[in-house]
Amino acid sequence: MCAAAKLEHLIDIKSLSTEEISAIAERALEIKNMDRGAKPLSLAGKHAAMIFFENSTRTYFSFEMALNKLGASVYNFETSKSSLSKGEDFFDTVNNLAAIGFDACIIRTSEEGLIKRTIEEQKNGRKFFKKIALINAGEGTSAHPTQALLDFVTIKEKFKNLNGLNLAIVGDIRHSRVAKSNIELLNRFGIKIKCVAPSYFKDESVKNVEWCENMEKAFENADIVMALRIQKERIQDIIEFEDYIKNYQITEENLPKNAILMHPGPVNRDIEVTSALLDSKRGKTILEQANNGVFARMAVLEMFLGENRGYNV
Amino acid sequence: MCAAAKLEHLIDIKSLSTEEISAIAERALEIKNMDRGAKPLSLAGKHAAMIFFENSTRTYFSFEMALNKLGASVYNFETSKSSLSKGEDFFDTVNNLAAIGFDACIIRTSEEGLIKRTIEEQKNGRKFFKKIALINAGEGTSAHPTQALLDFVTIKEKFKNLNGLNLAIVGDIRHSRVAKSNIELLNRFGIKIKCVAPSYFKDESVKNVEWCENMEKAFENADIVMALRIQKERIQDIIEFEDYIKNYQITEENLPKNAILMHPGPVNRDIEVTSALLDSKRGKTILEQANNGVFARMAVLEMFLGENRGYNV
Amino acid sequence: MCAAAKLEHLIDIKSLSTEEISAIAERALEIKNMDRGAKPLSLAGKHAAMIFFENSTRTYFSFEMALNKLGASVYNFETSKSSLSKGEDFFDTVNNLAAIGFDACIIRTSEEGLIKRTIEEQKNGRKFFKKIALINAGEGTSAHPTQALLDFVTIKEKFKNLNGLNLAIVGDIRHSRVAKSNIELLNRFGIKIKCVAPSYFKDESVKNVEWCENMEKAFENADIVMALRIQKERIQDIIEFEDYIKNYQITEENLPKNAILMHPGPVNRDIEVTSALLDSKRGKTILEQANNGVFARMAVLEMFLGENRGYNV
User: Fold this and answer.
1) What stretch of H or E contains B52?
2) Which residues numbered 256-285 in B keep a CB inside 8 Å of some CB on A?
3) Count of B-C CB contacts under 8 Å
4) At what angle do helices C57-69 and B90-100 cross, to 10 degrees?
5) ipTM of the complex as predicted
6) What is the pLDDT of residues C129-151, one digit of tens each?
7) Minimal Cα–Cα distance from A83 to chain B, Å?
8) CATH number listed for the domain at residues B4-144+292-305
9) Model pTM above 0.90
10) How far apart are CA B4 and CA B8, in angstroms?
């Protein structure tokens, strides 16, 4: 069976089959374990535009490095200097990039549903000049599929069997597209998810998770603890830092003995996690996530842009 | 005959012979029709600085992709962060780039005549450290030679014989360097040009064109209709939009049956051209222009930067 | 003897042995004199982040071209858009870059000692995820080692024997990291250094130089005259331009007959040096410095990033 036919755009985790997710993770680990010189430049001659409406060094560089390692050419689309800032509609922007010769747009935006809406413009009779892949690099507060994929790769590296694992997610679930994409993905692999957060970070619309009253309950039997970033620069007003630190900060003491600690980064030191824990051996998984990000994105890019799109699964 | 000797800088259309223009267009179409893998990296080891004082995603990416496809290295000269913003004169800036090792500067500026003046500083005894090509990517309101060249490539693709074709140019001719470079170029190939515009967009100093009172007259026997972009962000005050739309908007109805529709982009939907027309089959030429832009610029770059500068014509 | 073991970061001139400095300069000249096509891509597969907190076209492009010529991938870390601007500490930023897969950070900053402090965080138990080289591209008012190295290369090209040469440094020594790194480096090779500056540009803490009362005394027997840039945009208030020009401007008349003229650029024409002198034959050394910058940096990057770090010296 070949999934090639439908793999054109990475919209969100929902747009991927469970088999495709597994294939991406396996390929990511395969790439990671290759010799450095052995990596094939499977995207040589491809051209990708990075369209980042939101700043992000980490995700940006991770995609840029993934593209470089695959031999593609990378272009920085400066959103503030583009025709978009003069009112051009996004479909026209993408379509002009297709016409110029681009094979992919890597898109990061705060605008919920932008990618899907752009693709669906084709139903209104508008046509892309040629095939161009739209790849979600973080959208609104609901979708960050490549972050979930790299977290999945990291978990697969640490645990042989995912089915029945217990995951505790701590912190700002409401504003976190990382949390939401992870919940959607990890549920499919039989991971049980508990959430714990102060009231202002709760989001009751999130399904398939158990909300806990406090960290103690959330951490019972936890194999994985996932802290989330507090986006201080955006939501400073609603956070009671003293209270947050007292009730939700992860420390060397409260982190379950056998659990691994994850965080999408950048960490606010001594808020979500103590410096002591971060700088200890147990803090290293967070850097491994960043490390796996490049390999996960290489696997995604191969799948969506490679000559043989999709995998036999 | 070899034109190599004098091809050092692309200043404007005037600086090119008719044979050189033809050679560029033929080479652009040759490159376009090559197999993807067959394209030679004829500029490997060359270094080009993109010096854009004016924003432009389309022209910027088109040049960047052309350079990438030819194997050159591309550098983004951030004009706002450079020594220029500290008052360094432009000759010194270019000369330092030459000293560092650059082979070309791709320049976009609102400053009329900047490129020519910089080159002419050599007459005052100042010397470039080594050969460096200055390539005009849009200058002031009078010159945008590579846009005219890509439009020429697009017209050549559509029509076997250019001599005697009728072109109607609609809209903001006054502020349009695209129009002016096109008029200069296309006149040389025997294309008859009519212009139509509201009074605030007329420019009586433009020669070798026939000014028409209304679209009807301009569109008589037209083979090509070229709409121009209204630079809304710059000249908002002087435009009467309702009037413009009523008298100058191009629609499925008023576009002559056998004419092709061109526009340098980005189009202001439902101002210069209706959305219905843009999204129809007849709107596709505009994207083909964007597509040809890369090939035209590859041909230009080869001619000005390739080891064998110029062509035998 | 192999110096490989300790060559991890380029902190300042002090962090280099005299043998290592000589090895870099010799390698730079070797690279410069290679055939263009013969240059080995010794850093293919390496990834370097350019972290420039201070603007600089010249140093930026010089490093970028050096990396390109060596086959490395270059990434522009936009400091204003990064997590740093959200308060992430610099060690964490560097460590995340290491985790993503970077091999080097090229750093330019006004913050005195930032690079050394970051490296020394490792003594506090924090660990880099993997080896990553920090390369100083200008720091505070005290260190700009690659500028001193490229000046050294330029001097070596001009003079067979450095021991006993006389160097006069003119101008803003106080704020100049170029001057300070040069003094540190050139003293080691037996060059005698005289300094001359108005009171507001003097820095009595600078050692191993002779302060002169006026240019006449400083220029006695000078083999090299090094002018420094007045950073007009930063220190406008304290400069008395008329006085400066009268007493410290270098002209065709006062430049000793056999001396070469150096300046780190960009030159303020008709302030530090007259236009007439700059545009004469004798002004060309300044462009040769820019030219040597790429080769000096290639040698530095090879030494710090090449598979065989360090040289047998």
Assistant:
1) strand B47-52
2) 265-269, 279, 284
3) 65
4) 30
5) 0.92
6) 999 999 999 999 999 999 999 99
7) 7
8) 3.40.50.1370
9) yes
10) 8
